[in-house]
Amino acid sequence: MFSRLRDKNLRVQTPEEPLVTERVPRHVAIIMDGNGRWAKAHGMPRNEGHRQGKENLRRIVEACVEFGVQILTIYAFSTENWNRPPAEIGALMTILELVLDQEVEKLHKNGVQVRHIGTLEGVAPRLQEKIRLACDYTRNNTRLILNVAFNYGGRDEIVRAVRHIIEDGVPAQEVMEALINRYLFTGDLPDPDLIIRTSGELRVSNFLIWQGAYSEYYVTPTYWPDFDKDELRKALIAYSMRKRRFGRTDEQIESSES
Ligand code: IPE
Ligand code: IPE
Ligand code: MG
């Protein structure tokens, strides 16, 4: 159950109140995990879990807009998810297509800019086209960037970046962190401040392995279809109480704040 939580200034918050915290993460990334286990727990087929996950995504996007998150990156399909049974892969593709058919207009009206990270290689041409159209249609929106990691793998992303750097003939002495950043799918976006994983697994599963070097992690046992607005609020409050040191000492942080 949602317990009363306190932010840094010890203001007590309840689920009914608007989010009160002085530090909302600018970039939140979510590993949306646990659809299959949610379905099993409800005596349903795995694909029903994925459908419920799709419904939940809409709610969480809306909550992020409301809470003032600027960038939401969601892990929708990994390069390793091709290892799943073909019928499940087919269902996941169909669900993404449904999202694109049914949600893009609403996302557009809400000021959401849709982006894709990952590759479209091996993806059905019709789905590729819908992804491109959604990104193009919403490209001038500024309220929330919804970055969809689809057919995405962190190692694949780094391999592709290295290839492009070599193809561009970049001299070795110019290869620096900032340059590598620019060659990643996330390009101009800041690193995620907070990475949430639902369903309790304590691993990164090839998600944002470069960009997440200094992200705060938050893992909840809640399965993705049940991860609602109050669960998100809990994660954001937990983040607001973390101390990000970036290698420094507490004393250094205190003196830079005063
Ligand atoms: C996350 O739920 C959805 C995708 C990976 C596409 P899972 O399908 O991984 O659910 P579990 O982990 O088997 O419960
Ligand atoms: C990670 O979840 C990928 C997505 C959420 C899309 P998985 O369920 O595929 O991860 P593993 O295989 O358990 O590590
Ligand atoms: Mg899983």
Counted by DSSP, the helix tally is 8
How would you name the CATH homologous superfamily of the domain at 25-151 and 187-239? Decaprenyl diphosphate synthase-like
Largest sheet: 6 strands, parallel
CATH class of the domain at 25-151 and 187-239: Alpha Beta
Mean pLDDT, as a whole number?
A: 93
State the secondary-structure class. alpha/beta
Distance between the termini: 37 Å
Q: Which overall shape is indicated by the principal axes computed on the Cα atoms?
A: globular
**Fraction of residues in helices?**
40-55%
Element string (H = helix, E = strand): EEEHHEHEHEHHEEHH
Low-confidence stretches: 1-12
Query: If you compute it from the alpha carbons, what radius of gyration comes out, rounded to the nearest whole angstrom?
Result: 19 Å
Using brief descriptors, characterize the structure shown:
Undecaprenyl pyrophosphate synthetase; alpha/beta; 41% helix; single chain; six-stranded parallel sheet; binds magnesium ion
Topology:
Blueprint: E1 5-6, E2 12-13, E3 27-31, H1 35-41, H2 46-67, E4 71-78, H3 86-109, E5 112-117, H4 125-137, E6 144-152, H5 154-167, H6 177-183, E7 194-198, E8 216-220, H7 229-240, H8 250-257
Parallel strand pairs: 3-4, 3-7, 4-6, 5-6, 7-8
Antiparallel strand pairs: 1-2
Helix pairs in contact: 1-2, 2-3, 3-4
Residues 31-33, 75-78, 80-81, 201, 203, 205 line the site of one 3-methylbut-3-enyl trihydrogen diphosphate.
